[in-house]
Amino acid sequence: MNETVLTPFLFRHASKDFDPDRKIPEDQFLTILEAGRLAPSSFGFEPWKFLIVQNPALRAELHRHTWGGKKQIPNCSHLVVYLAHKRPSLLPESDYIQSSMREVLQLPDDIIALKTDYYGNFLRSDFGMIDNEMRLFEWSCRQAYIALANMMTAAAMMEIDSCALEGFVEADLNAAVKQHLQVDTDQFGVACMCAFGYRVRPPRPKARHSMENVVRWYD
User: Fold this and answer.
1) Could you tell me whether strands 161-165 and 48-52 are parallel, antiparallel, or unpaired per DSSP bridges?
2) DSSP H helical ranges for 20-125
3) In angstroms, rounded to a whole number, what is the distance separating the alpha carbons of residues 209 and 47?
4) pLDDT digits over 150-169, tens only?
5) Is-contact 51 167, C-beta < 8 A?
């Protein structure tokens, strides 16, 4: 069982070269998306959107502002842009937060009122970020990265490769998704991208810090 659990993590690597002639079967990519949709998030608010960019011309527009995905973006089977909500839609009384509690979580009115207060206190006092637009966006991005990790792991379980992409010029890429993908950048910002597909060549051996370097026990 232990080996079964770890096998996908040993398989996964940041694939730099994808085979442009191999496409992920639709049912398998939908499984990857479902793994992202089912990811946990703080307060259960799911402050993300996944944009699947298959059109070559649109990929080229994103490619122009990306220095860390020069090979991956043109050749991968599927390219996902991860958006994270910005401050206006993350405030406790925002339409997004209130509708998430009412329509998605299906909470009764008294619990919504209670959770609104708890969430507001979390933003205002616990983390002190309710008035800090950048910190609030970064917190939202951290939630999107949980979905990203779920999706890369699900892909690896099916022997599908992936590569998370952060190597881009943030302002220019956000301008591109606004212009070409019709994203409301007052409400959303790009957290990261991820290429999915099939490797061209075997990866280098996996290198990680030892367990002793990264784990400390307190008994």
Assistant:
1) unpaired
2) 26-37, 56-63, 72-75, 87-90, 95-99, 109-121
3) 32
4) 999 999 999 999 999 999 99
5) no
